[in-house]
Amino acid sequence: VEELSGQSRAMSAPEREEIASIVGDAHLLISPGDLAPYARDAVEGLESFPSAVARPRTTVEVSRLLAFCNQRGIPVTPQAGRTGLSGGAVPLFGGLGLSLERMDTILEVDTRNLVAVVEAGVLTQRLHEAVGEHGLRYPPDPSSRGSCTIGGNVAENAGGPHSARYGVTGRWVLGLEAVLASGEVIVTGGKTRKDVAGYDLTALLVGSEGTLAVVTKAWLRLVHEPASVAVIVAPFPTLEQAADAVVALHSQGLVPAACEFVDRASLEVSARRKGISVPFPEAEARLIVEFDGGDDAEVERDVTRAGEIALEGGALDVLLATDPPRRRALWELRSGIGEAVRDLGPSAELDLAVPRTALAQLVRGVRRIAEEAGLRAVSFGHAADGNVHVHLYREGSAAPDLFQRTTTALYAHAVSLGGTVTGEHGVGVTSRAHLHLQRSPAYLAVLRAIKEALDPRGILNPGKLLPESPAPLR
Amino acid sequence: VEELSGQSRAMSAPEREEIASIVGDAHLLISPGDLAPYARDAVEGLESFPSAVARPRTTVEVSRLLAFCNQRGIPVTPQAGRTGLSGGAVPLFGGLGLSLERMDTILEVDTRNLVAVVEAGVLTQRLHEAVGEHGLRYPPDPSSRGSCTIGGNVAENAGGPHSARYGVTGRWVLGLEAVLASGEVIVTGGKTRKDVAGYDLTALLVGSEGTLAVVTKAWLRLVHEPASVAVIVAPFPTLEQAADAVVALHSQGLVPAACEFVDRASLEVSARRKGISVPFPEAEARLIVEFDGGDDAEVERDVTRAGEIALEGGALDVLLATDPPRRRALWELRSGIGEAVRDLGPSAELDLAVPRTALAQLVRGVRRIAEEAGLRAVSFGHAADGNVHVHLYREGSAAPDLFQRTTTALYAHAVSLGGTVTGEHGVGVTSRAHLHLQRSPAYLAVLRAIKEALDPRGILNPGKLLPESPAPLR
């Protein structure tokens, strides 16, 4: 990031006044103290201050802000909950931080069409609760759901444990209202469930990380809460047995609602932090598998079969949790890993994904590569999706270039298994330099061509997603 | 279409020789007799001959063909099963018809990752059978599945009855190999289930109707065949009651695998053609609702509940079909409608979709508008998705502009209900002039900008999807 800092765009007093005239003085932040929270997201050690932050309340205000910044060439970094793990919300080039936190109205929960209409700044957890009151569910559940927003989830195409059965954010988005770099507003869909009238701009904007448009509103599909839920935990002596069991579960026709993988090291740090002792501490890997369904019999059938498959695959035991408190405790242990590993020391975090059958190879390779570099690695994540979060760390200090060299080797390893450099966290800053390992020059040229078509002046979230010098499109 | 015919691009003898040198003489068609099948798809009265048709066998051949045509400015119309209902495969500007019919290899059915890898020319039905041998299912089931191909389904983002539960083609595509206008080949994904490394080009290409790239290969997700399936048929005295029952089923938490709507007129023509007499001929509308699940008990539970809801909603009866022959007969009656209505006389076909709750309003409006124009309308389709196919006809002759005026009014009616001018058939030629009813100038400008970014010379499927003169992107 250092090489970019000299290019940071400051704003003149008249520019700030113009922006204040759009959002109101109270919603233009300029003091270093006010700006500090907007200089970071959840990526360790990455900080870059915006010159100012605007907090618009309406789509019209967003439109006027973008039209003005586009005209003046002011970089705009859209900001949501700033919980991202790829640096997507960090204003690398200064300019304007555009926080949608005040656009946080749940406009409608349409229980007849099973659609929620929300402003982009709505906290994901708040939407979960609002639709839950109607017995409904918005399935995407990133672990930051208490502080991330729908707009951020759309920008990153966020996942979560339940994407095993329910898919990631994009599957639930029926339509978006978004503001283009020019300030023009487009609406890409609505409550209609099937629509092939033109290129699928909804899908193009989902996961575009704020580089093509600023999403201001979303139409989201909902489902009914399942009538019955149960979770099993299966500890395995070896990593390979756990990974094989994941493949066996799915290839024998079961569809878990969630199917999480936790290695020994990651469970240890989470359990230690929470002061819990876990059974079978010697197990190298654990699966946490959730089933849901229309009644208890259906779930019991699936849980029983899953337990049999796990035991046939060498599980040391299969522990069942049907009551909500036990299920909650299990999930807290799992979701606590992300935070706990950050206490371990200087670290780097990766978000690798591979075909489900390559899970064991991925994790084994991660260990070997880390070990050879004198680093330690914990691995955990969404096994059904082949999506593994790797936390690479060293007790005590470590040269930054050691992390850099090692992460490059890990990215290359995932790609060599047919995988991706990012399964759900986004490219942002952290994976941008490695995108070429996975994507061909022709592919990257298409990304650049689309970016230039939609944001010709390059004001939207500069420095994110796109590698710096792709080959021009022929 | 008439206004375009003068612009048809013929090919010179040296150009034809160059193309023959790529695909081999046997696979370059030039005689009128050979070309005739490639001048049409399933749209009545729309015919335009290509100057030649090439039938490549490999992606390398497709790449060389496109590079050559791009250099010479020869229009290329990608062709799949030519079963489309929007004219997408008709070579409006002459030039080269690019038929992928020889690229029809099922490369792999990966039962451990639940992924099929297929060339674009594989017939959809053949894929169904191939994965069926492993107890697996590729869910998208357009009614033309016996003659359409995966490449065509991807290009149109095809739906079908089972998209009620399983979604349309796009949901099942994990990755594509595609050839850009320049001849460059990109791969957008593979067997990895979660991937946010760059804009979602898979989703952008799905439904792009061959205007952005030529899809040559696809990685498709599979699921296990359900262990149990049952279908109920519920005749209703009125349209409104049937439509309300669709909303009630879903808002009470049921998720039918399919939920089809058939009005009286469309059932009559299909039954007459098949020589079947149906019970409750006086019913204005029928729902055909399929449930599937992991065992009989689960399906019985859902069917029972659905039957109760239908009867509470005024159904005259609820007929159950669990055995395969009866289920097949029912589906044949339903899928026969499309063909049967074409025998009725001069006609126009629309593919409207609205929010589920607007279904009754849509169909009522369709009848009123048709009646006022002195035309008749039959309506049938995918009720769960609010997707209704309208077949507009007149016994005896009718002025073409009467159909044109009336279809415009019908499109506007669907849009006024929050709907779309095409739910699953694609824009192609037939809905292109009406896209502006639904999409704003800013939206259309984005489509045009993307098209220009990926196909700057405009060789790929010209005259399709994009309205002629969108406003330039600012």
Shape label of chain A = globular
Distance between the termini of chain A: 30 Å
Strand content of chain A: 15-25%
The number of helical segments of chain A is 15
Would you count the extended β strands of chain A for me?
Answer: 18
> Helicity level of chain A, as a percent range?
25-40%
Q: Average pLDDT across residues of chain A?
A: 94
Largest interface: A-B, 94 and 93 residues
Strand order in the largest sheet of chain A: 15-12-14-13-17-18-16
The description of the largest β-sheet of chain A is: 7 strands, antiparallel
Tell me which oligomeric state these chains represent: homodimer
Radius of gyration of chain A: 22 Å
The structure class of chain A reads: alpha+beta
Identify low-pLDDT runs of chain A.
1-6, 469-474
Question: Topology, pairings included?
Answer:
The structure is a homodimer of 474-residue chains.
Chain A: H1 13-23, E1 28-29, H2 32-35, E2 52-54, H3 59-72, E3 76-79, E4 96-99, E5 106-110, E6 115-119, H4 124-132, E7 136-137, H5 150-156, H6 163-166, E8 173-180, E9 185-187, H7 201-205, E10 213-221, E11 223-224, E12 228-236, H8 239-251, E13 258-263, H9 264-274, E14 285-293, H10 296-312, E15 319-321, H11 324-342, E16 347-353, H12 359-372, E17 376-382, E18 387-393, H13 400-416, H14 435-438, H15 441-454
Parallel strand pairs in A: 2-4, 3-4
Antiparallel strand pairs in A: 1-2, 5-6, 6-10, 7-11, 8-9, 8-10, 12-14, 12-15, 13-14, 13-17, 16-18, 17-18
Helix pairs in contact in A: 1-3, 8-12, 9-11, 12-13
